[in-house]
Structures are given as structure tokens and as C-alpha cells.
Amino acid sequence: MSSKKNQARLGSKQPEQPKKLGARHKARKRAVDFLFEAEARDTDPVDLAKERIELARGDDTIAPVSEYTETLVVGVAENLDRLDGVISDHLTDWTLNRLPAVDRAILRVAVWELFHATDVPPVVAVDEAVELAKQLSTDDSPSFVNGVLGQIVLVAPQVRAAAAAVSSRTAEDKPADS
After folding, report:
1. Could you tell me the sign of the dihedral formed by the alpha carbons of 140, 145, 146, 152, in that order?
2. How many angstroms separate the CA atoms of 78 and 112, rounded?
3. 122 near 153, Cβ under 8 Å?
4. What is the DSSP string of 89-154?
5. How far is residue 174's CA from residue 167's CA, in Å, rounded to a whole number?
6. Is pLDDT of 87 > 70?
7. 14 versus 85: which is more confidently predicted?
8. Cα angle vertex 37, ends 99, 154, to 5°?
9. Which backbone phi and psi does 22 adopt, to 5 degrees?
10. Which of 11, 103, 110, 163 could form a disulfide with 129 if both were Cys (CB 3.0 to 4.6 A apart)?
11. Taking the C-alpha atoms of 66, 70, 73 and 75 in order, what is their torsion angle to the nearest 10 degrees?
12. What pTM value is reported for the model?
């Protein structure tokens, strides 16, 4: 009997193949790394990212920083208070400051994507955050991150719609170029 048939007959599963991690996943991980490091060093994450971009330009041994990493870091930094407020509002029996710093960084990136990255489906933003929590944080973090984001994903469409309405209203208020 062939090996596959034997495994099927015995109910054995094939070993789980590791996920293939794409460029966007790597960009998210690097953004989380920058946000985590900036918080630990009490420095501006945007300045840190720009510093690393310059270092990579001058040294081929340093991995270049992707545009999406920079977009995430800048987006989180520009919206930090709002992101933290949303995350805090969806925590039960926790405060944002009590969370592991890496979980804060992961949640900030994911919530920014849920609210602002219109090319990222919500399920992808949540799945990526859970995957990062598996790689970078505690054993309990993936389910915790999933639970928090599972609540936030419900309000994301309203937030995006409100932002689009404000954006279109602002565009209407601007005088036309002549």
C-alpha cells in the first residue's frame, strides 16, 4: 500500500507546511520591529525608520526598508493617539500599558491597516497580526490579538466610510485651480 493511502487509512495527517511569507508580511514585521524598538528607546519611530532607510542605502549588508514598512510606521505614528484609543476601548480587563510592547506594536499596525489600508482585506490584516503574534510574542498573544481585532474589525467599515466622507467633503471645499 502506498504511503499516502496508508496515512489516509490510519487517519494520519501530513506535517503542516510552514506559511510562505510574502513581501507585505516582511514589511509588517519590520514595521512592528521599528515600533517596538522606538518605544523601548523612547524615540520617534518615523525618525528611526528614516535612519534605517539611510543606513541601508549606504551599506549593502543591511536589508533595505520597503515602502510599505515606511507607510505603516508613518501611518501608525501620525494616528497613534486615535489607534491607542480604539485599542484601549476594546480591551477587557487590560490596559494598553499592561500589554507586552510587541503586542501593542502588532495591534497598532493591524488597526492602522483596518482603518486606512483600503487595499488590505480586513481578514488579511487580522490574520497577519495573529501570525506576527505567533512569531514574536507569548503563547497567549495570538488568541488575545485575534480577540481584540475581532471586535475592532466590526467598526472598521464605519471608520473607513467616515474618513472617506470627510475626505470628499474636504475636496469639495477646496477652490478649483484655474
Report:
1. positive
2. 10
3. yes
4. HT-SS--GGGS-HHHHHHHHHHHHHHHH-TTS-HHHHHHHHHHHHHHHS-TTHHHHHHHHHHHHHH
5. 11
6. yes
7. 85
8. 45
9. -85, -175
10. 110
11. -130
12. 0.83
pLDDT cut 90: percent of the chain above it: 72
Conformation bin of residue 66: beta by default, left when phi > 0, alpha when psi is -120 to 50: beta
Q: Are 28 and 67 in contact (CB under 8 A)?
A: no
**Scanning the structure block, which residue is given the C-alpha cell 521599528?**
34
Euclidean distance between CA atoms 160 and 115, whole angstroms: 6
Question: How many CB atoms lie under 10 A from the CB of residue 68?
Answer: 17
- Tell me how crowded residue 88 is: count the other CB atoms within 10 A of its CB: 13
Long-range contacts of 159-162 (CB under 8 A, 24+ apart): 159/114, 159/115, 160/115, 160/116, 160/118
